[in-house]
Amino acid sequence: MEGKSPINKFGRGHRDKVQQFMAITGASEKAAVQALKASDWHLEGAFDVFYSQPQSKIHTDSRQLEELYNKYKDPYLDMIMADGIARLCNDLQVDPQDIVMLVASWHMKAATMCEFSKQEFVGGLQSIGIDSLDKFQERIPFMRSELKDEQKFREIYTFSFGWAKEKGQKSLALDTAIGMWQLLFAEKHWPLVDHWCQFLQAQHNKAISRDTWSQLLEFTRTVDFGLANYDAEGAWPYLIDEFVDYLNENGVGADGFSRTIGA
Amino acid sequence: MLLLFIDRSFTVPSFDVQVKLGRGNMEIELEQGWEIIERGITRLKNILEGLPEPKFSSTNYMELYTTVYNMCTQKPHDYSQQLYDRYRESIEDYINSMVLPSLREKHDEFMPRELVKRWENHKVLVRWLSHIFHYLDPEFIPRRSLLPLREVGFICFRNLLYCSDDTDLDSPLFRLIKSEREGEEIDRALLKNVVDIFVEIGMGQMDYYENDFEDAMLKDTAAYYSRKASNWILEDSCPDYMLKAEECLKREKERVSHYLHSSSEPKLLEKVQNELLSVYGNQLLEKEHSGCHALLRDDKVNDLSRMFRLFSKIPRGLEPVSSIFKQHVTGEGTALVKQAEDAASNKKSVGLQVFVRKVIELHDKYLAYVSDCFQNHTLFHKALKEAFEIFCNKGVSGSSSAELLATFCDNILKKGGSEKLSDEAIEETLEKVVKVLAYISDKDLFAEFYRKKLARRLLFDKSANDDHVTDLTLARENQTSFEEYLGNNANANPGIDLTVTVLTTGFWPSYKSFDLNLPVEMVKCVEVFREFYQTKTKHRKITWIYSLGTCNLIGKFEPKTMELIVTTYQASALLLFNTADRLSYSEIMAQLNLTDDDVVRLLHSLSCAKYKILIKDPNTKTISPTDSFEFNTKFTDKMRRIKIPLPPVDEKKKVIEDVDKDRRYAIDASIVRIMKSRKTLCHQPLVMECVAQLGRMFKPDIKAIKKRIEDLISRDYLERDKDNPNLFRYLA
C-alpha cells in the first residue's frame, strides 16, 4: 500500500485538484490523493470512486442478498451459472466480458469462471457492502478503481489464473490465457502484450503454467521496454527467455523497440 | 722465536711486557712516544714499497708495542685516544700519498692489477699496525664504543675507492668480461682478486660488493645481451637462437664460479634470461618458419624440449608455449575431423573407423610430447585436455563422437569386424579408447550405444565369450530342456528345427516387437514352445522379437538347391512365394503386416543387393510401393550356402531419444537432491551445482535444466520465494 505522499511531490495542477477535492468532499489529503490517482486525476471520476467505496463496515441485509441470489440462480443447481450471470450483467447494464465481473469474482473468491456458488456470491457481495442491484451498480466505479491499485491488481491477476482455468487442470489453456492477458493489460497498460500473444500463438501452442503466469507479471513490472535490464542468466521461466529471443529477433528491444513504436 | 719479515704472516709474541720494561714512574710525552712509533711505521711502509730497509726484528716490534702499551696505561696522561686517531691518520696518509697516486697513473687493465697489489699491501699494513696498536683493542676501544682497528683500516681503503672519481674501476673490468664473452682468454685470477676486494671490504656485509660492483656488472651484462639478442632475433632461426641462449646461460653460470661471488648467480642468470628470453619471447615463439608452431608441425622434439627448459625459467614463460601447443593439437584434431567428413561424404564408410584410430594415435603422440618434451608439466596436460575436448566433441557427418567411439569398439570386439586383433592388442586399444572417452562430454550417450552394440554381439556373435552373461547361460539351459521336452513328447513337434533364446527383459536393451504375420510353419513352432514354456513357469509372459531371429531356408533353384541363411523377416517374405509366383509390394506388406520401412529394407536386401533371390519389376535400384516381385528360379552362386544380410535399422535416433529421456530424469533427480539438502537456493547456484553433479556423465543444457525446474515447480517439489523470484524453496 502506498505510504504518505507529501503533496509537494505533485505538480501544480495536481495540487490544485487535491485541494479542490478536499474542499468539496471533506476527505483527508490521503483519501483525496488515493481517489484522484485511481481516476487518473479526473475530478469527476474521483468523486465516483470516493463515494462508491465502502466507507466502513456497511450493514447488508442478508435477506435481500438471498433474494438477489435466488433471482439469478440456476433452476436445477444451487449455483449461479453462465446463464444467470448473463442476466445479472444485463440488469447491471454491464458487458459480461467487462473486467468488473472479474473484480467481483475476486471479491467472491470464486473458484471458477462462469459460476458462483451461493456462499461465494453472498459472501463476496457482503464484503463490499452490496445487497441490491442498485448498490451493485453504485459500487462499479469503485471496483474498477481497484485495478489501479498496484497491490490489488497483483492479487486480481494472480487470482485470475485459478479462476480462468478448467477445474482439475494444472495449466491454463492458451486461448483463455491470451484472452485474460488482453483483458488485464488493457487496464494496466503493458506495451508488449500484443507481441506476447503473437509470440505464444506462433511458437508455444501449449497451456500456460502457473509459474509462467505469475512470472509474467514480474516481467511486466521489472523489465524495461528496451529489454536492457533483462537478465538472461536469471530465473525467468524458459518461455519468457524464448519471448525475449523472439523480440530480439524481430527487432524489438533496445533500438528495435523505438523503431516499431515510431512506425 | 725468530720472526721473518719476508714471510708476511707472523705470530705475535706474547710475553710480559711489564717485567721487561721495569717501569719506574717514567712518563712518556705524546710527541716523544709518537716519534718512536712513527719511525717504526715509516719503516714498515718502506718495506711495503719495496724500498731497502733493514729487517724489522722482533725487538723492533716489541719496542713499538711497548711504547704503545706504556702510553696507554700511564697516568695521568693516557694517550689512548690520540694513538687511536693517529693510527688512522697514518693509514690515511699512506693511502693518499702512496696508493692513490699509483692508481691514478695506471690505465686499462693495469689499474685493477695495481689495485689488487695495493690491497694486498694494505691488508698487510693493517695487520702489522693492528698488532702494534693491539693494546687499544681489548679495553679502550670497546669502552668508547669505537670501531676496531682492523675495521678502521679497511674503511680507509674503502673510502679511497669512493673518493677516486677519476679512477674508473668498472670499465676495465667489464671490458675484460666482455672479451671473455666474445671468446677471448682473460686473466680470470685478476677479476677474482678484484671481486674479492669488494667482498672482503664489506667485512661480512655484501653491501659493497652489491652496490659498488654487482649492480653495474648486472647492468653491463644486460646491455651486452640486449645488443646480442636484438641481432640474433633477426638473423637466427628459433632453434639456433635457443641453442645460443642455452649456451650463454651455461657460460654465465661458469663465469660466476670462476670469479664472481656465488650470490650473483641467480641475479646474473635472471638478467640474461630476461634479455634473451623475456624480451624477445613472443617474437621467438612466433617466428614464421622456425617458431613453436613450426617445431610442433615438424616434430622437432629436441628443440621443443630445449624450448621448455628455457622458457620454464622465466616468469609466465610457459604460458604462451602451452597456448601454441594447444592451438596446434586442436588444429591437428580438427583436420582429422574434416578428413573424416570428406571421406564420409564420398561414401567411404571405413573412414569413420580410421578416424577414431587416428584420434587415438594423435592422443598417444601428444601425450608423449607432454611427458617427454614438456616434463609432465600441468600447463601442458591442461592444454592437451582442452584441445581434445574441443575437437572430440565435434561429430562427423551427423554421428556424434560418442557414437563413433562405441562403433569403433564394436568393430574391434565383434567377430567379422573390420579389424582383426590379438587379445592384447584389443585390451591395449580399449584402454586408449577410455582415455579419449574422458574428453567427451556425452559419456552417457557412449554408454547407451555401447550397451546396444554389446547386446547385439552377445546375441549374434558366435565367438563372443558369453559365459559370464548369466542370462545367456540360462537361455542355453532353457534350450537344452526344450530339446529334452521335444524328445519326450512325440506330439509336441514343431516340424522344423527350432532354437529359442529366452532373455530377461530388464537386462537387455528394449527391442520393439512387431506383429509379424508368421508363415504357417513357424506358427506351429511358436505354439509348441509356448506349451513347453508353460510347463516351466506360469508367471512369465513371453514376447517374441521376430526382428532378431534367423532362419535357414532351402531354396530349390533350377541350377542347384542352395541353403540361404536369412532373418525371420526375410524368410517370411520368401515363403510367400511358395504359394504365389508374383506378388506386388502392397500384397507383400499386407501379408506380412510390417511397416513400410521394414518392408522396403527387406525387399531391398532380397532383390537389389548382392544376391538377387527375387526379381524386381521394374529393375531399378530402389524399392517403390508400385514394384512387383517374382521368385528368381534361375538364381545361383558358386557356394552351396549363402548368408543374405539384412542391414539393421539405424538405432541412432532411438538411442538419442532414450538418452534424452534418461537425462531428464537425471536432471530432475539432481535438482531434487540439491534442493533437499540446501532447502533454499538461488537460481544461478542451483544451475551450477546441477551442472557440476551431472558433469561426469554429460553436459546438461542450461535450457533443459530450466525446463526441469519449472516442471518440478508445477509438480510441487519446489516453489519460488514470494519476495525474490530468483530464489527457490524445497517443498517437503
UniProtKB/TrEMBL annotation, chain A:
One Pfam family matching this protein: UBA_4
Protein name as catalogued: Defective in cullin neddylation protein
UniProt keywords, alphabetically: Ubl conjugation pathway
GO process terms (BP): protein neddylation
Species: Linum tenue
Lineage: Eukaryota, Viridiplantae, Streptophyta, Embryophyta, Tracheophyta
Cross-referenced PROSITE patterns: DCUN1 (PS51229)
Chain segments annotated as coiled-coil in the UniProt record: none
Residues annotated as domain DCUN1: 60-248
UniProtKB/TrEMBL annotation, chain B:
GO molecular function: ubiquitin protein ligase binding
InterPro entries documented for this protein: Cullin, Cullin-like_AB, Cullin_homology, Cullin_homology_sf, Cullin_N, Cullin_neddylation_domain, Cullin_repeat-like_dom_sf, WH-like_DNA-bd_sf
SMART domains: CULLIN (SM00182), Cullin_Nedd8 (SM00884)
Protein family: Belongs to the cullin family.
Signal sequence range: none
Protein name as it appears in the record: Cullin family profile domain-containing protein
Domain Cullin family profile positions: 400-607
GO biological process, one term: ubiquitin-dependent protein catabolic process
